[in-house]
């Protein structure tokens, strides 16, 4: 019975934290125009982020959609984002991070990619071999395919 009670307390704390983050996102929408965070109407543990590609990068002009699956143990455990290779979503997670700050870290990763832990092995190989032009070309191609509106 004590374990069930403990889990209920953790879930309530997690909900309270997420409601607090929701209020902050609503209050500061204009402060960070590169990130739009939206909570699912029926489930506080499901969020969607729309992230604008950073300027002066191959991702510029793209809008990337990211789904967050927030665990009931949040913020003690990081949100799940699929296949993003980012240390703060793995072994460097801290309860001080918020969904908004995770989005900012993703934008920073887009602006300064980490070749030693790439999701796309080809991109990592291009960066490690010093072929910045090849990497940028590939990143622009994927941005056009996945994060830009289709033309007529």
Automatic annotation (TrEMBL):
Pfam families in UniProt: UQ_con
Residue intervals of the UBC core domain: 13-148
Any one GO molecular-function label of the UniProt entry: ubiquitin conjugating enzyme activity
Top-level enzyme category: transferase
SUPFAM superfamilies membership: UBC-like
GO BP annotations, alphabetical order: peroxisome organization
Coiled coil feature spans: none
Enzyme Commission number: 2.3.2.23
UniProt entry keywords in alphabetical sequence: ATP-binding, Nucleotide-binding, Peroxisome biogenesis, Signal, Transferase, Ubl conjugation pathway
Disulfide bond is among the record's keywords: no
N-terminal signal peptide: 1-16
Protein name as annotated: E2 ubiquitin-conjugating enzyme
Organism: Vitis vinifera
């Amino acid at each position: 019975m004590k374990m069930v009670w403990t889990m209920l307390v953790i879930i309530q704390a997690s909900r309270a934290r997420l409601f607090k983050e929701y209020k902050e996102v609503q209050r500061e929408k204009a402060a960070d125009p590169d990130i739009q965070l939206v909570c699912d109407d029926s489930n506080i543990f499901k969020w969607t982020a729309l992230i604008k590609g950073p300027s002066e990068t191959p991702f510029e002009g793209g809008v990337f959609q990211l789904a967050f699956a927030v665990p009931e143990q949040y913020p003690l455990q990081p949100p799940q984002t699929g296949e993003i290779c980012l240390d703060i979503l793995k072994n460097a997670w801290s309860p001080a991070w918020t969904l908004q700050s995770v989005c900012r870290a993703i934008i920073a990763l887009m602006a300064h990619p980490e070749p030693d832990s790439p999701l796309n092995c080809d991109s990592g190989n291009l960066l490690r071999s010093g072929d910045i032009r090849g990497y940028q070309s590939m990143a622009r191609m994927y941005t056009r395919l996945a994060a830009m509106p289709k033309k007529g």
